[in-house]
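step: validate -> pass
step: tokenize input -> pass
step: predict -> running
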Amino acid sequence: MARAGTAYSAKILCSGVLMAGMDANRLKREDLALAQGLIQTQIDVNRGVVHAWAFLGLVRGKAVRQGNLGCSQAIANTKVVKLPDQRREQPTNPIVQTTPWKISSDAADIPPRINRNKLDKAIRKAFEEAQASAPKRTRAIVVVQDGWVIAERYADGITPETPLIGWSMSKSLTHALIGIAVENGQLRLNEPLSLPEWGNNKDDRQKITLDHLLRMNSGLRFDERSRSLDSDLVQMLTQEANTGTFASKQPLTGRVGRDWSYSSGTTNILSRGLRLAINNDPAYWSYPYEELFEPIGMNTAYLETDASGNFVASSLGWASARDWARFGLLYLNQGVWNGLQILPKSWVQHAVTSSKGSKKGYGAHWWLSSKRRRPDLPRDSYSAEGYEGQLILVVPSYKTVIVRLGQTPKRSSFNPNKFGASLLSALTPKE
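step: predict -> pass
step: emit ->
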């Protein structure tokens, strides 16, 4: 417990303070509330290092800043692979904007007609705190329709350019990156990934394809419990130098290509597979920026790595609310940005095609709005979702993208179904 807690504390403060520029006391009070009084921390701004310790220093955690590419968890007895800085464009929009404003040149000529009072009320409610014991802690909301930002609001201390963690929304970023790699001929969707640790042809893991992994149909065992300190998820994110290898070494407990099980380990296997396919670390580390972030103007975005240099593609994507909205808009527009085809033409359809065993609730690294999961949302909507209430909701029938970011400890405090429905009720569907 203490080892996971010190590692998590160091990582949150490194990314939140040294990269995102957030207030350390706020992060300790909110994101690290469970560690208050148990774990001590020290932030060395000049060296770009955060230390955390418990039990008089007997248990320690450490995270180091990787230039402008985020922070990496330092694992005991393992050297952290140092990443080269990436050349980054400055954010494309000034801090102050009056809605509505165009977020891309593909926007309609005139902004959409909306019920402003109704929309503002829904957004205001999303920031209101009804129970101190179950806070929402909404940090940012951005609503886009017809390519226009029609509403945005930020909590105190958060700006339109503050990078915020997406947690499992990062999986949807990974779907985009894998699609680009398939289009570039670097990966093959329906061929076995054939990782070295999967042994010979007698190992049934050799049957696992890229598509099986994208659809959570790998059959690999993985304990996804986020609040269980002995789960595979917590161990992978806080104690493993190579997240992809840790996940790929798990045994089969399901049928490859048939059984569905949500797994963050699966995404980190994809990340490792992409690294092996590119076979050039500097090219791998620049891949998200050159192939995805820069082409669509996600200039605040970054994807953090583990100690071995693999992107922790399951969880550690960061971007401003506006840039997360740009990503959702890319999918809304069938992978096209400002007239340029960024994703393969069929890739959005791939994302929203239901996966075997998911009861129509999951596509390929995107969640689907089945009647069971999201009864009040349009059936054509789909979403990227993350721990503590992160959400990108894409609604083609409304030509709308809704982004909500926050730090919501209890799931009951934020309902994506009701939240999305309340905002859409202020908008007009688009045929």
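step: describe -> Residues 95 and 314 are 29 Å apart (CA to CA).
step: cleanup -> pass
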